[in-house]
């Protein structure tokens, strides 16, 4: 617990105040919104800044030429730091009772300029780790010149208070009959799909992927014929080259891309669907050569009903009728039934796509029926969709059959 002081004691709404150190640390560790207040030449200043907590010290990032860092030389700089997480907007029946749910920390004290190189390096490492666990090992550490250009303030967490509002609307009793909507609009900081810089070929790191449940996690899967790894924009060029054939795209829901940029758009659409929790896309690599040869996905993911579909599959023509597609499906079926506990796996294919239907039947799936005018084709026409499925009861025989087929198939060199 932090001891209250005259500067941290509330003059009103004291029920919202807390001095609990664990609650304060939780807000500081979660939040990115940090405001640093100080005075220069008798004038107030407030600057947004980056922060990270290490133990009971709050570190603030800045430039060696910034005013607060220059002012902190010598005896230190008196500061007030405010860190806030906004959790929701409150809509009251009256305008007076509109409000917000939030959690905030205010810390007072004298910040010192960090001059020890090891302490500064530890702070910068912690700051990088805050945006992604493992990021410090996945990026170049600062050079001596960069360290010299970076200034860090250290504020001991001694005079600290936590202020929070939770709950719903607190309208006056006399206003409860008013015909206005009232309630809470929850807010949260949500990451969008990562956008790689120009020239980046490294795959998206795990800490930037959104995995809502194990069913949504594109874990790498490995076999003798094929490797499945999480689809990434960095795969677009190889994928475009591998699938540059009209027959590959003939029955897909999008037209064949005419450029790498077009294939990148297809990949981006898959990643956006993954961000929404609708798909889990993998790229297929030849296990022998390492070449990108196609892609496949989980979709219609339903952990509650323990079912998933396999689709959005396209494979470069040179790898048709090899063990790659068979083993890819075996890996996906094994993950679904044996690891995730699925009781049903489904497939959907265009009624015109006789080759795909035959391939699905060879897996051991059962044709269940036709969904009429189910989806639109790339040319705008409506397609009838043939639906197949395999259940947990059918899986043991199907698994044995697929393994025997692969045993008789040599990997593609």
From TrEMBL:
Enumerate the InterPro entries for this protein. Answer: Acyl_CoA_acyltransferase, GNAT_dom, Pyridox_Oxase-rel, Split_barrel_FMN-bd
Q: Which residues form the signal peptide?
A: none
Pfam (any one): Pyridox_ox_2
- Annotated keywords: Acyltransferase, Transferase
Q: Name one GO molecular function term.
A: acyltransferase activity, transferring groups other than amino-acyl groups
Identify the PROSITE patterns for this entry.
GNAT
Question: What PANTHER family does its record include?
Answer: BLL6696 PROTEIN (PTHR43610), N-ACETYLTRANSFERASE DOMAIN-CONTAINING PROTEIN (PTHR43610:SF1)
Q: What's the protein name?
A: Bifunctional pyridoxamine 5'-phosphate oxidase family protein/GNAT family N-acetyltransferase
